[in-house]
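Continuing the batch. This is chain 6 of the set; chains 1 through 5 are on the previous pages. Same settings as before, nothing changed between runs. Recording input and output for traceability.
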Amino acid sequence: MAPVRNPFAPGAGSRPPELAGREAILRDAEVAIQRAVIGKPSRSQMLLGLRGVGKTVLLSKIESWRRTQGT
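Output for chain 6:
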């Protein structure tokens, strides 16, 4: 891929143009948060990856969703 068009550009927390392929991670996080709110156990998640692949962006997105839910 051309370096100019590569979406994996390191930059702590800078949101890429699209969070492609991350729907399952976000859905699992939403379920875990909702279960925690009602006192039910759920599976933990660990976000792993190389620098610049969007771990911080995913955490920010999950936190943003949590805040909008009022939990």
